[in-house]
Write a structure and sequence with these properties.
The structure holds two protein chains of two kinds. By secondary structure, chain A is an alpha/beta fold. Chain A has 16 helices and 14 strands. Chain A has two domains: 158 residues, Rossmann fold (3-Layer(aba) Sandwich), CATH 3.40.50; 215 residues, 3-Layer(aba) Sandwich (Rossmann fold), CATH 3.40.50. Helix content of chain A is 43%, strand content 18%. In chain A, strands 3-4-14-9-10-13 form a six-stranded mixed sheet, with helices on both faces. Chain B has one domain: Aldolase class I (TIM Barrel, Alpha-Beta Barrel), CATH 3.20.20. Chain B has a nine-stranded parallel sheet. In chain B, α2 runs parallel beside α12, α3 crosses α11 and α6 runs parallel beside α7. The model of chain B has no long low-confidence stretch (mean pLDDT 96). Classes of the chains: A alpha/beta, B alpha/beta. The complex binds pyridoxal-5'-phosphate.
C-alpha cells in the first residue's frame, strides 16, 4: 500500500501544520487506525457494516448506450447506489467505528452542501454516537433539506457565520472546536485533506471503491481498464478509486471543478490553478493570492467547491502519476443530462464532472478502450440546481 | 532587541513580562502602529504583531473579526515590516503568524526582511518543530527568536523537543481551545508551566484568555510572561471610534502592567 512517511509526507506534500494542542490526538488516531486496519475483527465488523448497511460492494455497470456514442467502453462504478447516495458512507462508517474503538462518544464534522454532514449523522445515529455538524450559514439556507435530514437523524447542526461562510470556514470552525473537545470527540473529517493521518485514514476507508472495481473489471473483461476517472473535490472518491491502480499500467485522471471557466478565475481547479501552500493542516495545492490568503472557490457543485485538495493528490500530480484537468459547470451539466437520457441514471453534479471528463478523453483513446468512471453519488440532492440550470418549469403552469 | 534582553530585565525585577498582541492593519495600518506605541508607553514589555490571515483556526471570534477587518482594509503581508520598523527599538517586536503567509513570502526572505525591519522573531502557532526545517535554518541565519507552542495535551517528550527547538521563550497555550478572553484563567496552566520548566531554562510565556490586571497577576505568579490578545483587540471591537479604542487600550495596558508587578 502506498503510504506517506512517518510524518505524513507524500514527497513535499502533507504533514502536520496544526496547533501543538492537536498533536496528541493525531498521534492517538494514527495508532488506533493502524491497529484497527490490521485487526481482522475490526475489518470483519466494517465489512459487515458495509455489506448489510452500506449496500456495498457497489455494482460495476457497463453504460452500453453511452459507450456506443463515445466509441469507448465506459464502465460506471455505481457508488450512487450506496446508502445515503454517495461513496461517503465508506469513510463515515470507517471513522465512526474507529471512534467507538478509541472510546470516544462524540463526533464532529464539517459540511458544505450537507452530503458529508448527512453521512456522518447517519453513521452517528447507527452507531450511537453524539454528533455535531458545522455548516456555513449560507449553505444551511440553500440546503435546508439536508439540514432537516441531519436533525431528523439526531445531530446538532451549528451555523458558521465567520469568514466566507462556506465549507472552508466550516472546516476552520470544526478545527477550532476540536482543540477544546479533543479528549472525548473525534473530528470525522469529510475528505482526504487535513493533517496527517487524516488523508491516509480517509483513503484507507474509501479504497474499497477501487479494490472492488479492479476485481470487478478483471472478472467481467479479463483485463484492467485503460483509464480510470473520478471527480476531485477534497479527493476522497478519487483517492478511493485510484489507490488500487497505482501500481498498474492504468492512466489515472482526476477532474476538478472548472466552474465558470478557468480564465474567469471563478473555479475550484485547485491542482490546475493553485500553488503549493499550507491549508487546513497540510501542505498541498491551494487557491491563494500573492500573500497566501485563501481565495474563494466557485463551482456549481457544492461538493467540489473547496480551495484545497488532499495532499496525496498533490503528490500524484507533481509526480506525474495522475493527471488533473478542470471540467466546467457547463460541461458537467451537459454530461449529467446525457447520462440521464442515455442510461436513465441521474448522478450527482460532482460525479458528472468525471463523466464529462471521460467523454472528453474518449476521442483520443483507442476505439474500444475501457474507461472506468467512478460515479461517486446520485443526483437527488441536486434537483434544485438542475431545475434552475436547465430552466425547467416546476409544473405549476 | 531580542526577547532575552527583556526577560533579563523582568527576571531581575522579579516579575513577569507583559506581552501585548495586536494584528497589524487593525483597526487600520496607522492605528495599529499607534496602538502598539500606546501599549509600550503604558507598560508592555514585548509586542506580538499578528499577521491577518483568511483562515485563522487558532483564533476565537475577537481576533477573527480583527483579522477580517484588516484584510478588508487591504492589508498586505509586507506591511508587517512597515509596522515593525515604526515601532522597533524600545521593546522586542515578535510576529505571530500562520505559517502559509511566511511560506508564501519565502521563509528565508521573510526572516531577512523582518530582521532588517527590527523584528525579534516569530511565534508560530501552526508550525511544530517537526515541520520547521526551513525556519530553523532561516532563524539561525538571521538571529531571530523562534517561539513554538506547548499545550496541556503535549507529552513530556514533545515538550522537551519543542523547548529544545525554541529560542527566546516558550509559549504555553494554557487552555485547550482557541484564543478569547475568558472569565476564569486556566487550571491546566500552572501544571503545564511546571512540566515545561522541567525541560528548559527558557522563560515560559502563558497565553490565552487573560483579560484584566487581576488575571494577569494570577498568571504572573507562575509564568515568566503574561500574553494578552483578545482583550486588547476588544478595545477596538467594542467601539467604532478609534480614539475611544486607544483610550481603552491605554487603560487596559495600565491595569495589566500593574497586574504583572503585583
Ligand atoms: C457525490 C459526491 N462526489 C464527490 C464529492 C467530492 O468529495 P471528494 O473529492 O472528497 O470525493 C462529494 C462531496 O460532497 C459528493 O457528494
Amino acid at each position: 500500500m502506498p503510504n506517506p512517511d512517518l510524518k505524513g509526507h507524500w514527497g513535499e506534500f502533507g504533514g502536520r501544520f496544526v496547533p501543538e494542542a492537536l498533536i496528541a490526538a493525531l498521534e492517538e488516531l494514527d495508532a488506533a487506525h493502524h491497529k484497527a486496519i490490521e485487526d481482522p475483527g475490526f475489518q470483519a465488523e466494517l465489512d459487515r457494516l458495509f455489506r448489510d448497511y452500506g449496500n456495498l460492494p457497489s455494482p460495476l455497470y457497463k453504460a452500453e448506450r453511452l459507450s456506443a456514442e463515445a466509441g469507448v467502453d465506459i464502465w460506471l462504478k455505481r457508488e450512487d447506489l450506496d446508502h445515503t447516495g454517495a461513496h461517503k458512507i465508506r469513510n463515515v462508517l470507517g471513522q465512526a467505528l474507529l471512534t467507538k474503538r478509541m472510546g470516544k462518544p462524540r463526533v464532529i464534522a464539517e459540511t458544505g452542501a450537507g452530503q458529508h454532514g448527512v453521512a456522518t449523522a447517519t453513521a452517528a445515529a447507527y452507531l450511537g454516537l453524539e454528533c455535531t455538524v458545522y455548516m456555513g450559514e449560507e449553505d444551511m439556507r440553500r440546503q435546508a433539506l439536508n439540514v432537516a435530514r441531519m436533525r431528523l437523524l439526531g445531530s446538532e447542526v451549528v451555523p458558521v457565520t465567520t469568514g466566507s461562510r462556506t465549507l472552508k470556514d466550516a472546516m476552520n470552525e470544526a478545527l477550532r472546536e476540536w482543540v477544546a473537545t479533543v479528549d472525548h470527540t473525534h473530528y470525522l473529517i469529510g475528505s482526504v485533506g487535513g493533517p496527517h493521518p487524516f488523508p491516509k485514514v480517509v483513503r484507507d476507508y474509501c479504497r474499497g471503491i477501487g479494490d472492488e472495481a479492479r476485481a470487478q473489471m478483471l472478472e467481467r473483461t479479463g483485463k484492467l481498464p485503460d483509464v480510470v476517472a473520478a471527480c476531485v473535490g477534497g479527493g476522497s472518491n478519487a483517492m478511493g478509486t485510484f489507490t488500487a491502480f497505482l501500481d498498474d499500467e492504468v492512466k489515472l485522471y482526476g477532474f476538478e471543478a472548472g466552474g465558470e471557466g478557468y480564465d474567469t478565475g471563478r473555479h475550484a481547479a485547485t491542482i490546475t490553478a493553485g500553488e503549493v501552500g499550507v491549508l487546513h493542516g497540510a501542505r498541498t495545492y491551494v487557491l491563494q493570492d500573492e500573500d497566501g490568503q485563501t481565495i474563494e472557490s466557485h463551482s456549481i457543485s457544492a461538493g467540489l467547491d473547496y480551495p484545497g485538495v488532499g495532499p496525496e493528490h498533490a503528490h500524484l500530480a507533481a509526480a506525474g502519476r495522475a493527471v488533473y484537468e478542470p471540467v466546467t459547470d457547463a460541461e458537467a451539466m451537459a454530461a449529467l443530462e446525457k447520462l440521464a437520457r442515455t442510461e436513465g441514471i441521474i448522478c450527482a453534479i460532482e460525479s458528472a464532472h468525471a463523466v464529462a471528463g471521460a467523454l472528453r478523453l474518449a476521442p483520443d483513446l483507442e476505439p474500444g478502450a475501457a474507461v472506468l468512471v467512478n460515479l461517486s453519488g446520485r443526483g437527488d440532492k441536486d434537483m434544485g440546481t438542475v431545475v434552475d440550470y436547465f430552466g425547467f418549469d416546476r409544473g405549476t403552469e | 532587541m531580542k526577547s532575552a534582553d527583556t526577560f533579563a530585565v523582568t527576571r531581575a525585577e522579579h516579575r513577569a513580562a507583559l506581552v501585548g498582541y495586536l494584528p497589524a492593519g487593525f483597526p487600520t495600518l496607522a492605528d495599529s502602529i499607534k496602538a502598539i506605541d500606546i501599549m509600550i508607553d503604558h507598560g508592555a514589555d514585548l509586542i506580538e504583531v499578528g499577521i491577518p490571515y483568511s483562515d485563522p483556526v487558532m483564533d476565537g471570534p475577537a481576533i477573527q473579526r480583527a483579522a477580517d477587518r484588516a484584510l478588508a482594509g487591504g492589508f498586505r503581508t509586507r506591511q508587517l515590516f512597515e509596522v515593525a520598523e515604526a515601532v522597533a527599538g524600545r521593546v522586542p517586536i515578535l510576529s505571530m503568524t500562520y505559517w502559509n503567509l511566511v511560506e508564501r513570502y519565502g521563509v528565508e526572505a521573510f526572516a531577512r526582511d523582518f530582521a532588517a525591519a527590527g523584528g525579534a522573531g516569530l511565534i508560530t502557532p501552526d508550525l511544530i518543530p517537526d515541520e520547521a526545517e526551513d525556519w530553523l535554518a532561516a532563524s539561525e541565519a538571521h538571529d531571530l527568536d523562534r517561539v513554538f507552542l506547548v499545550a496541556p495535551s503535549s507529552t513530556d517528550d514533545r515538550i522537551a523537543a519543542t523547548a529544545a527547538a525554541s529560542r527566546g521563550f516558550v509559549y504555553a497555550q494554557s487552555v485547550m481551545g482557541v484564543t478569547g478572553a475568558r472569565t476564569a484563567t486556566s487550571a491546566a496552566a500552572p501544571a503545564l508551566v511546571e512540566r515545561t520548566r522541567a525541560h528548559t531554562d527558557l522563560p515560559i510565556g502563558v497565553g490565552l484568555g487573560v483579560r484584566d490586571g487581576d488575571q494577569a497577576a494570577e498568571v504572573a505568579a507562575y509564568g515568566d510572561a503574561v500574553i494578552v490578545g483578545s482583550a486588547i483587540v476588544g478595545c477596538y471591537l467594542s467601539t467604532d471610534d478609534v480614539p475611544t479604542g486607544h483610550q481603552r487600550l491605554a487603560d487596559l495596558t495600565t491595569d495589566l502592567a500593574a497586574g504583572v508587578r503585583r
